[in-house]
Amino acid sequence: MHTNSEFRFDGGATWLNLLATRGQSFGSRPVERLATIEAAEHWLSAIGFPPRDAVTTDDLAHLVQLREALRDLAMAAVALRAPTRNALSHVRAVASAHTALDFADIAERGAETDDALSAIAVQALVTLNGPDRALLKECAEVDCRWVFLDTSGRRQWCPSPACASRGRVRAHRARQSAASRS
Fold first, then answer.
1. 7, 40, 64, 107: which sits with the fewest CB atoms below 10 Å from its CB?
2. What is this structure's pTM?
3. Which pairing describes strands 147-149 and 136-138: parallel, antiparallel, or unpaired?
């Protein structure tokens, strides 16, 4: 696995953008964008939860653990199957710690990492239990398979131009191969 600190914020919701912090998740060389405490601090700041205190290695581990549990729930929703019990239990536990947030205070003094994680988990559960669940789509690129909100209803690939390009090239080659066999 290699690392890259370039974050994606085009998944349609913060919890889906968290999934994109591990790119090419199903390929031979996944890209870990939350490989360091500094990367986690940067990502949390970018989503509007600048850390009040320094992010710890435990905070980073909890963020990654939440991401993977959310990935399981998102992929289960798209596939119309039940998520794993562990993933669902974990997300529910993180969400249950949610409290009302004072965004003026967060803007001034920063946020507790646990508050950010619980807000993300709550957002995911609202999406997964509401009408936006029908808008979830999985990228057709086999190495990516990022789940995103498709408000157009027509997208095959995630917002990454690379996935769309690879998908179109793969489809073109398959058509050429089929035509040459005919």
1. 107
2. 0.86
3. antiparallel
